[in-house]
Design brief:
There is one protein chain. The chain has 326 residues and is α/β, with parallel strands linked by helices. It contains 11 helices and 11 strands. The strands form 2 sheets. The chain has a 6-stranded mixed sheet with strand order 3-8-7-4-5-6. Strands 2-1-9-10-11 form a 5-stranded parallel sheet. Strand 5, helix 5 and strand 6 form a beta-alpha-beta unit.
């Protein structure tokens, strides 16, 4: 579990443990690489997996069939859709799991030696919520445009799509003068901010964008997460300062309970947690921050401005500077 090159036994008083509540990416993890060197190498990164994911193979088969049938084969050279088989004008990705599901489908297509640049053409936009999803798609080396990575959350991505999609004339001249819908690859648990925004009743009918959700994976809290987190925290609690970084609402209750921060009766944060020796807590974005505030009445110390290692590092550094004596 602990990085072999920097074990706890080697850690000096100057190191600050930082616990990432996520599975460490392979072969390299951006958060590990970044925080191993951030602020002069003063952090000791560690990972505790929270989620277990299972791809839905029936959905992957459905997506494969749709692509092979030409459902995404928009041809930007066509004067109309009369000669096109396209039914979808783009694909939305808001999680790494969705990228993994899409990757599995693309690999199947390549095994079949089909004309992948025709089935997933350069003019097809792949909308992503952040740099991690963008990196995963870029690794596929498709010719599709990958856009939206600076959005940072679903609401901003949806507003970006509204502006970006209408600039593409081929998608605003469907047979019935409406836009082609967009495919949204999702998990069983997801927010509806993107479909609601793109199909809002406050928009003119011509501006609305249909969204077809396809559930390509299922997620749940790992049965071992609570004990794994407890074991990691028992090692790190001896340090004068430490951080926990939360990436999703899943596992938040178990984390707060193991840290002794929740009232048993109300399930909310204790009124006085000043005396509790606990880590500082950061979230990777506003969705998880708002969940902690809404469900537990807890305001984390830091919320990353951008869902990236650098965005998190900058937010933590800014917080630490604000706590330093002037």
């Amino acid at each position: 579990m602990v990085d072999e090159s920097r074990t706890l036994n080697e850690a000096s008083a100057r190191l600050t443990p930082i616990l990432f509540l996520k599975t460490r990416s392979s072969p390299r993890d951006g958060y590990h690489d970044c925080f191993s060197h951030w602020n002069g190498g003063s952090y000791l990164p560690e990972f505790v997996p929270v989620l277990e994911h299972q791809l839905k193979h029936d959905s992957l088969s459905e997506l494969l069939s749709l692509i092979e049938s030409g459902a995404f084969s928009t041809d930007g050279r066509a004067e109309s859709f009369a000669t096109s088989t396209a039914y979808y004008g783009g694909i939305i990705f808001t999680s790494q799991r969705a990228v993994e599901a899409f990757t599995a489908v693309v690999e199947k297509l390549r095994e079949k030696s089909v004309p992948i640049d025709v089935l997933l053409p350069p003019g097809l936009p792949l909308y992503v919520v952040g740099p991690a999803t963008a990196r995963g798609l870029k690794a596929l080396e498709l010719h599709c445009s990958i856009v939206g990575e600076d959005s940072g959350n679903g609401e901003k991505l949806a507003n970006f799509i509204l502006q970006h999609y209408k600039k593409d004339a081929i998608r605003t001249a469907n047979r019935d003068e409406t836009k082609l819908p967009i495919m949204f690859l999702v998990g069983e648990q997801r927010r509806d901010i993107i479909p609601r925004t793109l199909q809002s009743g406050s928009l003119e009918l011509s501006e609305r964008i249909g969204v077809q959700e396809l559930v390509v994976y299922e997620s749940g809290e790992l049965s071992t997460f609570r004990s794994d987190f407890q074991a990691a925290w028992s090692q790190y609690r001896r340090f004068p300062q430490s951080w926990v970084v939360v990436f999703s609402p899943t596992g938040c209750r178990a984390m707060l309970e193991e840290l002794g921060m929740l009232e048993a009766a109300s399930g909310k944060i204790m009124e006085n947690i000043v005396g509790i020796h606990r880590p500082l807590i950061a979230t990777i974005g506003p969705t998880t921050r708002d969940f902690l505030v809404r469900e537990f009445g807890f305001q984390p110390e830091v919320c990353a401005g951008k869902p990236s290692p650098e965005g998190l590092g900058e937010a933590i550094s800014k917080f630490m500077q604000s706590q330093s004596p002037q």
